[in-house]
Specification:
Elements: H1 3-33, E1 48-55, E2 63-64, E3 67-80, E4 88-89, E5 118-123, E6 127-132, E7 142-147, H2 167-184
Parallel strand pairs: 1-3, 3-7
Antiparallel strand pairs: 1-2, 3-5, 4-6, 6-7
């Protein structure tokens, strides 16, 4: 390859690479600017007297469903379906920031290691209750219980997570907040 041929080749390759990178980054820029998720079409499940939640379906670190809706006085039963999980309220009694109504009882299943083992809690006060899995909170294993028909503006469970949470927990709380707010409005 002569020097002029090599220069032409490098010039063409550089121009092609630059053009490709510019197009790729332009596409990413559109995605990155759209960091606000829209949940306006989200609908809360119908409120019921009792609901079941799986902890760790398909060997994952998530609750299924992640948002449940019970009547005031309703009960949620969590079932461990894989590994070690808990259902723990964001409540000062659990050394956690309050993300449940002010007078609400705390709960903590403790880490459940047995598959098929359950834990239940009855919710006597209307509101939004956020909870987490103790071993997997930083991985975003969080959920929300909506009790009754609360007003979104007064709910600690719908407050911005702020600096009290790691990135995984904060991101998941923002997602849950967006869905619950949309479902209540």
């Amino acid at each position: 390859m002569t020097d002029s041929t090599r220069r032409d080749f490098l010039r063409h390759t550089t121009a092609t690479t630059t053009a490709t990178a510019t197009v790729a980054l332009a596409g990413c820029a559109g995605v990155l600017r759209d960091d606000e998720e829209s949940y306006e079409d989200y609908t809360l499940p119908e409120a019921s007297a009792s609901v079941e939640v799986d902890m760790g379906p398909d060997a994952s670190n998530r609750f299924e469903p992640e948002i449940v809706h019970v009547e005031t006085g309703g009960t949620v039963t969590w079932t461990n379906v894989s590994r070690n999980h808990s259902a723990t309220a964001y409540h000062p009694d659990n050394d956690a920031p309050r993300r449940v109504p002010a007078d609400a009882e705390s709960w903590d299943s403790g880490v459940i290691r047995e598959n098929g083992k359950t834990f239940s809690h009855t919710f006597e006060q209307a509101g939004v209750y956020d909870y987490y899995c103790t071993p997997h909170e930083t991985l975003g294993m969080l959920g929300s219980v909506v009790v009754g028909d609360p007003e979104p503006g007064d709910e600690p469970g719908l407050a911005s997570p702020g600096d009290d949470f790691g990135r995984g927990g904060a991101n998941k709380l923002e997602e849950l907040n967006g869905k619950v707010r949309a479902g209540l409005e």
